[in-house]
Amino acid sequence: MLHLSVILFLALVLGDSLGAAFPPGTLKKSFSLSKYQFLVPHELKAVQKMKAQFEDIMLLSDRKCNTRLFHRKWNTAELSVADRVMLVEAELELATDMLGLPTVPRFAETRQRPLTFLTQVREDLRGWMATEAPSHQPCGKLRHWLQKLQTAKKTETIGCLEASAILHLFQVLNDLRCAALQEQCT
């Protein structure tokens, strides 16, 4: 019994001293992108269903868009991991902003699950950037694309931005997979 008391006392003392050495909030939260190497099938199905429904809605509208945001002359695999994460974070910001817009009731219901999933991914990427590459500056290719994105947000119609973001969601998810793999992918 005495040995157990000594062990508990030592554990408490050690715990207190470690707590003083590492105050709450100083330990870095780890963000792993590995969970995005292979996306969950039900999330992909929800995105596919939403995209198909959106394409049906688009057939009924007359949208002429000039934006070619997702048509790049370079491949995501050419970027560093931090640049890949920064790219996908910007793509997801556009997508979640567009999915958050008011819409017809039947499409609003269909897009809820993808919106929730994509918002969580975007937050994970922000956390990864904050912990793994807080002062990272994008390379020239990415910087140019980010400027193009900002220009499009100011000059394109909401309808065109929405169409571009939704119709290219699988490209965004592939870019996410490339960032998670942290190696060359196509």
TrEMBL record:
Keyword Signal in record: yes
UniProt entry keywords in alphabetical sequence: Antiviral defense, Cytokine, Secreted, Signal
Molecular-function GO terms, alphabetical: cytokine activity
GO cellular component, one term: extracellular space
Single GO BP term: cell surface receptor signaling pathway via JAK-STAT
UniProt KW Signal keyword: yes
Secretion signal span: 1-19
Pfam family, one: IL28A
Localisation per UniProt entry: Secreted
Family: Belongs to the lambda interferon family.
PANTHER family registered for this protein in UniProt: INTERFERON LAMBDA-2-RELATED, INTERLEUKIN-28 AND 29
UniProt-recorded name of the protein: IFNL3 protein
